[in-house]
Each structure stands twice: as structure tokens, then as C-alpha cells.
């Protein structure tokens, strides 16, 4: 549903972009820990979804978004003081995919990579991307071997952590028009 102020409820799954960590100042601004490389791009969106899958999402019009010191700060229409900002502490921020800015070439939203199969240049399967980790130097793919039922009882499938850098990740093909996607890596199974 949409009114003159914008969307009032979530129509599509929300992609989590970051988390509100604290209030900033006394005028309703919040500090945000971003889960991406270019969070200032999110400032181009008119609304952010605030909440979580468990508690539900509330659509809040964005009044401002800027980089301050070593982090991102934002303000929402209707959140005018510190107590209003503190009430948002711990909530996630996000947006439906169709509301988000288009990523630059060779840049990806983490959500687009989760679930993709990973194989090396020799065609050996490593499993599926189950998550990503942000480290200081670079992002890291969490790749779990597909559980084909042949593992010993009680043994978990092998999980690899692969650096998401150009020297390792050679190709990312996102699924399109029914064609499957894949991530190809320059990595050996015995590493």
C-alpha cells in the first residue's frame, strides 16, 4: 500500500542493509553499522524499512543520511529527539530489492550471492554460499558443502571461508531468466 507519504507496509522481502547501534545527538539522529561498502547510496532512497523479520518492518521516511566521523548517521521523519532515536537502537534497517540503488558493475549485494553454487576453475563443486563476513581487509564468502546425505552420522558438512577478492573470485554469474548462477573461484579443494 502507498499513500502520499510513501509506502506504509512491506510488500516484498526486505534485504537487511545495516543495524541501528545508538542514538546520535539530541535531534533524533541514529548511528548505523552498515553491512555494505557504499552506504551513502542508501541515502538516495526516500524510505528505509526499520525492524526485523521477527518483529516486523515499519517504513520510515528518511530525513537525512550522512557520513560522520567513522560511521553513518541517519534521521527519520517523525523521530525528533534522543528518546525517539534510542527506541530504535538494535533495529535493523533495510529495503525491498526493487527499492535499492543498482550496484556498480562488479559490485553485488550480499543477498544476491547467498545461495549461489561455488566451483573452482577446474569445475569442482565447493558447495553453496551460506553467508558473508565483513572483515577489515575484505569480505569473505562462507561456502558450505552441499549435504548429499553421504556424510558420517553427526558430521557436519565442510565449510570454507574464501576471500572475496579479485585474485580468488574470478567470475560471478547471477541467475537471470531461469538460467542458474555460479561463482567461480581460483582455489583448490585441498587448500
Write the layout of secondary structure elements.
Blueprint: E1 2-3, E2 6-7, E3 14-24, E4 29-34, E5 47-52, E6 56-68, E7 71-76, H1 82-86, E8 92-96, H2 110-113, E9 117-120, E10 125-134, E11 139-144, E12 159-163, E13 169-173, E14 182-185
Parallel strand pairs: 9-14
Antiparallel strand pairs: 1-2, 3-4, 3-8, 4-7, 5-6, 5-8, 6-7, 9-10, 10-11, 11-12, 13-14
* CATH topological fold name of the largest domain: Elongation Factor Tu (Ef-tu), domain 3
Low-confidence stretches: 1-8
Helix content range:
under 10%
Major sheet: 6 strands, antiparallel, barrel
The number of domains? 2
Question: Hey, roughly how much beta strand do the residues contain?
Answer: 35-45%
Question: What would CATH call the class of the largest domain?
Answer: Mainly Beta
Order of helices and strands: EEEEEEEHEHEEEEEE
**DSSP strand count:** 14
Helical stretch count? 2
**Cα shape:** elongated
Task: State the end-to-end CA separation.
Answer: 51 Å
Strand adjacency order, main sheet: 3-4-7-6-5-8
| CATH architectural group of the largest domain | Beta Barrel
CATH superfamily of the largest domain: RimM
Q: Explain this structure to me?
A:
Binds ribosomal protein uS19. Keywords: Chaperone, Cytoplasm, Ribosome biogenesis, rRNA processing. One of its GO terms (cellular component) is cytoplasm. It is a single chain. This protein is mostly beta strands and 191 residues long. The chain folds into 2 domains: 2-99, RimM (Elongation Factor Tu (Ef-tu), domain 3); 110-185, Roll (SH3 type barrels), CATH 2.30.30.240. 5% of the residues lie in helices and 45% in strands. It has 2 helices and 14 strands. The strands form 3 sheets. It has a 6-stranded antiparallel barrel. A hairpin with a 2-residue loop joins strand 1 (2-3) and strand 2 (6-7). The longest helix is centred in the middle third of the chain and has 5 residues, at 82-86. The chain is elongated, with a radius of gyration of 19 Å. The chain starts with a strand and ends in a 6-residue tail after the last strand.
Amino acid at each position: 500500500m502507498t499513500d502520499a507519504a510513501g509506502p506504509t507496509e512491506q510488500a516484498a522481502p526486505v534485504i537487511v542493509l545495516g543495524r541501528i547501534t545508538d542514538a546520535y545527538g539530541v535531534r533524533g539522529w541514529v548511528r548505523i553499522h552498515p553491512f555494505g561498502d557504499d552506504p551513502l547510496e542508501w541515502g538516495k532512497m526516500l524510505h528505509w524499512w526499520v525492524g526485523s523479520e521477527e518483529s516486523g518492518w515499519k517504513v520510515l521516511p528518511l530525513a537525512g543520511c550522512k557520513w560522520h566521523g567513522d560511521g553513518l548517521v541517519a534521521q527519520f521523519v517523525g523521530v525528533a529527539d534522543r528518546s525517539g532515536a534510542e527506541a530504535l537502537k538494535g533495529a535493523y534497517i533495510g529495503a525491498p530489492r526493487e527499492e535499492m540503488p543498482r550496484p556498480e558493475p562488479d559490485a553485488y549485494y550480499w543477498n544476491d550471492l547467498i545461495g549461489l553454487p561455488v566451483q573452482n576453475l577446474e569445475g569442482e563443486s565447493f558447495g553453496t554460499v551460506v553467508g558473508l563476513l565483513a572483515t577489515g581487509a575484505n569480505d569473505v564468502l562462507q561456502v558450505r558443502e552441499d549435504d548429499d546425505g553421504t556424510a558420517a552420522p553427526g558430521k557436519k558438512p565442510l565449510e570454507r571461508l574464501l576471500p572475496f577478492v579479485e585474485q580468488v573470485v574470478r567470475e560471478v554469474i547471477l541467475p537471470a531468466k531461469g538460467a542458474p548462477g555460479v561463482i567461480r573461484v581460483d582455489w583448490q579443494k585441498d587448500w
